[in-house]
């Protein structure tokens, strides 16, 4: 069996060498068991010397393939590029910052051998800030109510999909990619095991609070139109409240005569209604924006340098080949 390691790298010049040493050690252990390995590293437009480091690795080790983007296209795009250039029967997707312990690869390959198409490593949240852990918990509660596929807390991009899962993922050509959800959407027999979260080896996480928030919203919005439905219900609920309140005012006026004071009520009603309209418009706008991006049909990434021959990029409508009549 050929196992491909796919790792997106953004500003990882300090760790990528160490990362490769570690996975290379695992490769040596797997060789006697009849497993070959290839390494696909994607430089996501790093600002440091990650590309130079990758070029050196490729010189020293012929199993290394690298793809370097023309600019930073984001981790999702890097993952996609990695999957496209991996030819393994199984693909191990992992971060290059050594937060995903390479020694777990053996266990994953083992479970894959038992017939699972997706082996998923689930990270425990020990050693993480309390706020982040709590936010994550609340978020997953909420999101799983709204989204069709099941998203599990702690399940990230450390997993081993089989060839047919990878092919299925590559057939999902949407521009807005939320791979956690895509992997869940694909299905196939899956198994999950837990591991202890490791501290980042070097540098710092590129996630800010804002990018996490946006990522969370992406997860919510990229899988169905239930938020639109929720907006509709909210509007209907508000209409009902308004109706009841109006009836109450009219009855009160008939019984007690007209009372003029009501400044607070009016202001509250006006601002609340306006706020709700803004929210609903925002939700609609989000979906329209997504349609806009999909329709443009731009490639997910542009390649600046690579040692892989085949660098085809698919448009949202299939491979670029398909577009030629
Ligand atoms: N990464 C990437 N492009 C980006 C940001 C991150 O390819 O724009 C890579 C990064 O090099 C690492 C992985 O994605 O291998 C996870 O990134 P990070 O460690 O910053 O995220 P966290 O571990 O906090 O989720
Ligand atoms: Mg990390």
Describe the structure using short key phrases:
Spore Coat Polysaccharide Biosynthesis Protein SpsA, Chain A, three-stranded mixed β-sheet, 10 strands, disordered C terminus, binds uridine-5'-diphosphate, binds magnesium ion
Shape annotation? elongated
Q: How many distinct beta strands?
A: 10
**Count of folded domains:** 2
Which oligomerization state do the chains in this entry correspond to?
Answer: single chain
Rg, Cα atoms, Å: 25 Å
Averaged pLDDT: 83
Order of SSEs, N→C?
Answer: EHEHEHEHEHEHHEHHHEEEH
Bound molecules: uridine-5'-diphosphate, magnesium ion
> Span between N and C termini?
37 Å
Low-confidence segments = 311-325
Quick take:
The chain is of the alpha/beta class. Helices cover 50% and strands 16% of the residues. The chain folds into 2 domains: 2-223 and 299-322, Alpha-Beta Complex (Spore Coat Polysaccharide Biosynthesis Protein SpsA, Chain A); 226-296.
How would you sum up this structure, described in words?
The protein is α/β, with parallel strands linked by helices and 325 residues long. It contains 11 helices and 10 strands. Helix 9 packs antiparallel against helix 10 (263-296). It folds into 2 domains: 2-223 and 299-322, Spore Coat Polysaccharide Biosynthesis Protein SpsA, Chain A (Alpha-Beta Complex), CATH 3.90.550.10; 226-296. 50% of the residues lie in helices and 16% in strands. The protein binds uridine-5'-diphosphate and magnesium ion (MG). Residues 95, 97, 99, 200, 205 line the site of magnesium ion.
């Amino acid at each position: 069996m050929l196992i491909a390691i796919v790792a997106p790298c953004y500003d990882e010049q300090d760790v990528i060498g160490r990362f490769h040493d570690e996975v290379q050690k695992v490769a040596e252990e797997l060789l006697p068991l009849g497993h070959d390995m290839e390494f696909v590293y994607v430089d996501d437009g790093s600002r440091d010397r990650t590309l130079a480091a990758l070029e050196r690795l490729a010189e020293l080790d012929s199993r290394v393939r690298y793809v370097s983007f023309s600019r930073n296209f984001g981790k999702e795009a890097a993952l996609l590029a990695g999957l496209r250039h991996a030819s393994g029967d199984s693909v191990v997707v992992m971060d290059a910052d050594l937060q995903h312990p390479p020694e777990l690869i053996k266990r994953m390959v083992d479970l894959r051998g038992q017939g699972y198409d997706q082996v998923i490593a689930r990270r425990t949240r020990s050693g993480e800030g309390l706020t982040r852990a709590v936010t994550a918990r609340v978020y997953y509660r909420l999101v799983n109510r709204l989204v069709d596929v099941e998203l599990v807390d702690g399940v990230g991009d450390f997993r081993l999909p089989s060839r047919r899962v990878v092919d299925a993922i590559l057939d999902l050509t949407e521009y807005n990619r939320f791979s956690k959800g895509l992997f869940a959407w694909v299905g196939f027999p899956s198994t999950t095991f837990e591991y202890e979260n490791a501290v980042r080896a070097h540098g710092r996480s590129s996630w800010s609070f804002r990018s996490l928030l946006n990522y969370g919203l992406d997860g919510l919005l990229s899988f169905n139109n239930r938020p639109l439905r929720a907006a509709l219900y909210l509007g209907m609920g508000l209409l009902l409240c308004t109706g009841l309140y109006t009836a109450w005012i009219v009855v009160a006026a008939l019984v007690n005569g007209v009372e003029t004071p009501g400044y607070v009520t009016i202001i509250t009603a006006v601002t609340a209604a306006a706020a709700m309209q803004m929210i609903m418009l925002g939700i609609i706008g989000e979906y329209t924006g997504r349609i806009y991006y999909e329709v443009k049909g731009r490639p997910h990434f542009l390649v600046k340098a690579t040692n892989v021959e085949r660098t085809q990029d698919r448009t949202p409508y299939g491979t670029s080949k398909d577009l030629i009549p």
